[in-house]
Specification:
Radius of gyration: 20 Å
Shape: globular
Number of helices: 6
Number of strands: 10
Order of helices and strands: EEEHEHEHHHEEEEEH
Strand order of the largest sheet: 3-2-1-4-5
Distance between the termini: 41 Å
Largest sheet: 5 strands, mixed
C-alpha cells in the first residue's frame, strides 16, 4: 500500500506516513477474541485495509498474565502505527481492558458487536460530542461525598468519570433499597433524559445510591450513546452483570 498523499510505500494498511506526515486512516475498529484481534482501518466511510494479530493463550498464573499483556501490547502497537482520530473495540473484555491500559487514546465500545465495522460506519454523520479533558477527580462534585461499596464504589465512579464525554458526576444520598444483593457492588447507568444526562445506580447489599452524571450529549439520542459506552466499560471492569 502507498501513502494517499505522496505515494511513498507504507508497510501496513493504514499506517501513518512518516515521509510526508500524513494519516492514511482516521478510525481503527478492533474486533478481539482471546487468541486473535482483527484491526480494520477506515478513512471516512471507506475500508482501507485489515491486519490481524494472533496469540497462543496461556491461562492462569504469571505466564498467562504476561502473555495477555504482550498480546494486548501488540494490538496497541498496531493502533499507534495508524495515529487514528478514533478507536472502537468489540469482543473479549479481558483483552480490551489490557489494550485500553496501553493506549493513550480514547477507546469506545461498539454498540453492536455482531458486525463492529458496520456498527461504526452506521455512526458516521452523527454529531461529534465534546471531549472533556478534566481528570476523573476534577469531575467529582456535589455535597454528598460518601459512596457506597467502599473501594468498589469509588472504582465504579472512576470508570464513569474517566469517560471523555462525561462532564461531572454528582453523588446522591444513600438509601435503603429493601432488597439485599449477595453479588457485592453492582453498577448500572440508566436511560438518558431529554438533555442527554444519565444516572449511575450503585447497589451494595440493601443500600442504593443514585448518582447524577452530566454528559456532553445534547439530547436523548446522543445521551444513549454515552450510556451504552458507560455500561460496557462497567461490564469490562466486572462491576455489572453480563
Amino acid at each position: 500500500m502507498n501513502c494517499r498523499r505522496c505515494e511513498s510505500p507504507i508497510e501496513r494498511p493504514g499506517d501513518y506516513c512518516l515521509t510526508c506526515d500524513t494519516a492514511n486512516c482516521d478510525t481503527v475498529v478492533v474486533d478481539v477474541s482471546r487468541d486473535r484481534a482483527t484491526l480494520t482501518m477506515l478513512d471516512e466511510e471507506r475500508v482501507v485495509g485489515e491486519f490481524t494479530v494472533t496469540t497462543i493463550p496461556e491461562e492462569g498464573g504469571e505466564n498467562g498474565v504476561v502473555e495477555l499483556r504482550n498480546f494486548a501490547g501488540l494490538v496497541a502497537d498496531e493502533i499507534h502505527r495508524k495515529r487514528p482520530d478514533e478507536v472502537y473495540v468489540s469482543g473479549e473484555h479481558r483483552v480490551i481492558r489490557e489494550v485500553r491500559a496501553q493506549l493513550h487514546l480514547d477507546v469506545f465500545r461498539v454498540r453492536d458487536d455482531s458486525d463492529p465495522v458496520d456498527s461504526v460506519l452506521s455512526r458516521r454523520g452523527e454529531r461529534t460530542l465534546e471531549v472533556v479533558e478534566a481528570s476523573p477527580k476534577e469531575k467529582l462534585g456535589g455535597s454528598h461525598t460518601t459512596l457506597i461499596g467502599g473501594r468498589e464504589g469509588r472504582r465504579a465512579i472512576g470508570v464513569v468519570a474517566e469517560h471523555p464525554h462525561v462532564k461531572k458526576v454528582v453523588p446522591g444520598p444513600i438509601e435503603a433499597g429493601g432488597m439485599s444483593s449477595r453479588k457485592g457492588l453492582r453498577a448500572k447507568v440508566t436511560r438518558a433524559d431529554g438533555n442527554g444526562n444519565v444516572r449511575l445506580l450503585l447497589r451494595d447489599g440493601s443500600s442504593v445510591q443514585e448518582n447524577r452524571v452530566v454528559t456532553t450529549a445534547m439530547d436523548r439520542e446522543t445521551g444513549e450513546r454515552v450510556r451504552e459506552d458507560l455500561n460496557a466499560a462497567l461490564r469490562d471492569e466486572a462491576l455489572q452483570d453480563g
